[in-house]
Amino acid sequence: MTPKDMMVVDANAEAMGISRSSLMENAGGSLARKIVEIVDPCRVTIFAGVGGNGGDGFVAARHLLNYGFGVEVLLLAHPCQIKSQETLTNWELLEKIDHNLSDLQITVINDSSQVTQTGSDVVVDALLGTGVHGKIREPFSTAIDVINQSKAIKVAVDVPSGLDPLTGLVGHKAVKAHHTITFHRKKTGLEKARSDYVGTIHVCDIGIPLDAELYAGPGDLLRLRKRDQKSHKGQNGRVLIIGGSKDYSGAPALAALAALGSGADLSIVICPKVVSTAIRSYSPDIIVESLPSDVILPSDVDTILKFSEKVDSVVLGCGVGTEEGTKLAVNQIIENIEKPVLMDADALKLVDKDLLYEKDSEIVVTPHAAEFKALFGKDVTGNLEDKIGLIRNLTLNSTFTILLKGRIDLIGFNGLLKLNNTGNPGMTVGGTGDCLAGLVGGLMAQGHSGFEAALLGAYINGRAGDLAREKFGYSFTATQVLNFLPQVMKPQ
Q1: What's 226-489's CATH class?
Q2: Is the separation of the CB atoms in 12 and 218 below 8 Å?
Q3: What SS3 state is found at 263?
Q4: Which residue in 6, 62, 237, 364 has its CB near the most CB atoms, within 10 A?
Q5: 389-446 pLDDT, tens per residue?
Q6: Per-residue pLDDT, 492
Q7: H helices of 416-484, where?
Q8: Is 391 exposed, middle or buried (0-12, 13-18, 19+ CB in 10 A)?
């Protein structure tokens, strides 16, 4: 699990009603219990930082006192620098403990010269955890040296301070722990790190339900890429929508508007000339390029591929129709295109599924149950466990992502799986699937992987639909769903 994944899970758990203070209490309590398993009651020194890692250490200090340990807590900053309310609350709890009645000593370290050997039997690194960035500043740098030079048993909280929690690499310096006690899931960096830094790894449960990890939630919005303040037009994603036919103009227009709603800079629709004027009429924000025929044909493929070279992602299928010539064109496009592609609607009925397994470039398919059967030849049952197994098997060792739409959406890619339960029956109205396609395509254009774009798109589209239902009941349109995208996607 990456540090970002853990932040997402924490936020999703909080949205479910599990407070961050409860998670910190559980983490600190499990840390203390694990120390009790490692060593008999003795003297423990906890080196604490000002983030959540330090807060876990403060909680552990209280529990260790109750287990009969002597505890010294060294806070390596002024308390006014403590970052979270949960950490501050647990520091203030330590300050309220009567030191005449318990074997507790707390010290605020103002300068690296105050960081010296303690003579304790156990030293706990609750300094930085997953919060390492670049060169380690003082007094943390000296504290790491002191911890490493100590003859005590060294216990790291979550991740040894200084070790990159994603890569397992050490840039400047890091604590060399005998034991690393991490929470909920083993962090990616721990699996990659040298054993002399992490020692024995213990994974402790802190009460986060599986749903907070498996279901997309508001915490997943933390995955959205932050816009570079110095960026200019086009640097935040260009999306090409390939769709429309003589009978369908709304579908590609909705997809194009949703792509813009995702944060993409430019949304370009390439469509048959017969519908180009209608698509332009939906919004002046959409760029429309015309093809000569009433439907997309093989003779249009070269033109489409040239346009694709100028964009960052492609959405294929919205209103494209099912003409035989269009089928040939769709397969030629998929076979030759080199950009990330989302395939939706009619394209799912036309594409040769073998192409999905042959492509190296990223592909996302977004079928509902009937389209899924048409594409993969397999029925979708109503049993969630069966559907999970089906999606896992189909996407294992594949390069494509499946977003199976339904009451609960399933998103799968090469062993990864997410569920989404936002949305409501009002979203059976025509066009909401096109909005989803445009959202996912827009997110891919901004650099998200197909899997991440699909899970985010499903959550955001469904949440916007839920807001539409709150305002309009079940009498809302896909265009009204689009109007709620900014509210869903605004920074939390």
Answers
A1: alpha beta
A2: yes
A3: coil
A4: 364
A5: 999 999 998 899 999 999 999 999 998 999 999 999 999 999 999 999 999 999 999 9
A6: 59
A7: 432-445, 450-472, 478-482
A8: buried
